[in-house]
Amino acid sequence: MDLNKERFYRARILQRRELTGDLWSFRVERDPDFQFVAGQYATLGVLAPHKHIERPYSIVSSPYEPELEFFLELVPRGELTPALYRLKAGDEITIRKAAKGRFTFTPDGSAHQNHLLLCTVTGVAPFVSYIRTLTTESQQSKSSGVRRLFLLEGASRSSEFGYINELRRIASEAPWLKYVPTVSRPWEDPGWTEEVGRVDDVVRKYANVWGLTPENSTAYACGHPKMIENATGILARGGWQKESVKSEVYFVPKEHVAVTT
Predict the structure, then answer these.
(1) CA 16 to CA 25: how far, in whole Å?
(2) Domain 8-96: which CATH class?
(3) What is the model's pTM?
(4) CA distance 85 to 21
(5) What is the domain partition of the chain in residue ranges?
(6) What does the longest C-alpha to C-alpha distance in the chain come to?
(7) Nearest to 116 by CA among 226, 230, 251, 247
(8) I need a labelling partner for 81 at 20 to 30 A (CA). Which of 17, 65, 140, 215 fits?
(9) Per-residue pLDDT reduced to its tens digit, 139-161
């Protein structure tokens, strides 16, 4: 099957990292013409014998990186993730040349200094892109204004935190980042000694601990739809207005994984 070279490019997988039996990340080549903003997604694909299968995935990389990174979860009955899961370094995928999505981080256009980030498992991807971008900009003295990020990340078990070491390191070095991972099934994770509960169980607690209010904060939620529904409901009852809460839902119907923006 021939691809329209004006719309797609073939990207070679450069590196693959396994987390659990159904979670992995990989880095691929970035076309020089592929431009994006932190928080956007790329449309990845594989060429099957009679069709081109595509799905959107949030970009983990910052726009300053020369490669593209993605964090994926295997959906056994999905159409695309089983094919992606079988790929290894050196194999190729397709990528549409235009990044899309409005789940972007635009603190300079916000009246709020504080940004509350809520996510589950692979939903951390756009937030890692935000944080890597701000880290690079702060190192290059490109950032302006006072911006503080507060990331609350949930998973069933600690093995599902794909970027926990990187986020902990940045949080220990950057005064503008606070990071709390929380596990919802601690009985299956006996080595875990930190926060427990779902994100929506503890969001009110940490909003209070961090002094986040509707008057000084914008909220972003990404990941499982039930978490987003519950967490945004809690925020709404706490006084957050609709325009101060952004969300991106990752949902897993029987057939495939998709992202809505």
Answers:
(1) 6
(2) mainly beta
(3) 0.92
(4) 10
(5) 8-96, 107-260
(6) 55
(7) 247
(8) 65
(9) 887 665 568 999 999 999 999 99
Q: How far apart are CA 91 and CA 14, in angstroms?
A: 8
Q: Measure the CA–CA gap between 177 and 167, rounded to whole angstroms.
A: 9
Rama region for 211: left / alpha / beta (φ>0; ψ in -120 to 50; rest): left
9 DSSP β-pair partners: 95
Count CB-CB contacts under 10 A for residue 69. 22
* 3-class secondary-structure state, position 82: helix
- C-alpha angle 253/255/258, rounded to 5°? 60
Q: What is the CATH number of domain 107-260?
A: 3.40.50.80
E strands present in the chain: 8-18, 23-29, 41-47, 52-58, 67-73, 92-96, 114-120, 148-155, 177-183, 217-223, 245-251, 258-260
Cα angle value 188/192/197 (rounded, 5°): 75
| Residue whose entry in the numeric block shows the structure tokens 């701000």 | 134
Angstrom distance (rounded) from CA 191 to CA 64: 36
